[in-house]
User: What shape does this take?
Amino acid sequence: MITDDDIKKLSEVFVTKGEFNELKGDVAVLKHDVSDLKEDVGALKENMQSLLVTVDGIAKMMETFLIEQKSMGAQVGRHDAWIQEAAPKAGVPVKI
Assistant: This one.
C-alpha cells in the first residue's frame, strides 16, 4: 500500500498539474515563435532569390559590356591601321 510519505516523495519527483499546464503554455508560445520564424525564413528565401536574379542580370550585362568593349577596341585598331595606310596615299600627314 502507498503511504502518505510515498506520495510526498513521488510529488517531489513528478510534475504537478500546475507545472504541466505552465509547460503546456510555454510549448504553445514556442510553437507560435517557430511558426513566425518559418514565415520569416520563407520571406527571406524569396528576397534572396530576387537578389540572385538581379545579380545574375547585372553579371550578364557586364559580360555583354566587356565583349562590346573588346569588339570596339579591335574595330578602333583596324580603323587606325586603315588610316595609317590611306593617309600617305591621300597626301594627308598623320601624327601618332
